[in-house]
Specification:
Elements: E1 3-7, H1 11-23, E2 27-31, H2 34-44, E3 48-51, H3 60-68, E4 77-82, H4 87-95, E5 100-103, H5 108-120
Parallel strand pairs: 1-2, 1-3, 3-4, 4-5
């Protein structure tokens, strides 16, 4: 099926999500930081990246903005997978090119339906329109 990358500094949660995705027939890998995410992006060439917002050094918004703006990742879809239910966070994620904002803790069937929806979205339909500046810590 699809190749997915889960980016979350909560390694246990990331591995749990990856295992659930694998039970659905997907290939899933995990990264716990922006640096390891970039390595996985280059090596694994994922179809969809699920990323958390609350991470140290480079947060999820900064990472989403940087990855979505890279021409070599133009074919990759991005979805935020976060514990936040803040409407402004959702709006920012969508402005930066996320195809969905999936809240952690939802029922697995609903979460998976939304992930499948992201996999069906044509990448050209979710162009990043916002730009933010990554601080001193870079990818």
């Amino acid at each position: 099926m699809a190749k997915l990358l889960v980016i979350d500094d909560d390694e246990t949660g990331a591995r749990t999500l990856a295992r659930l995705l694998e039970t659905e027939g997907h290939q899933a890998t995990c990264a716990s930081s922006a640096g390891s995410a970039l390595l996985h992006m280059r090596e694994d060439d994922p179809d969809l990246v699920l990323l958390d917002l609350s991470m140290p050094k480079v947060n999820g918004f900064e990472l989403l903005d940087a990855l979505a703006a890279e021409p070599r990742f133009a074919h990759v879809r991005f979805a935020v997978y976060s514990g936040s239910n803040d409407d402004s966070a959702r709006a920012t994620a969508m402005k930066l090119g996320a195809c969905d904002f999936i809240q952690k803790g939802m029922d697995w069937s609903e979460t998976y339906e939304r992930i499948k929806g992201c996999l069906k979205v044509e990448k050209s339909k979710v162009p990043p329109v916002g730009r933010i500046t990554i601080g001193a810590s870079s990818l």
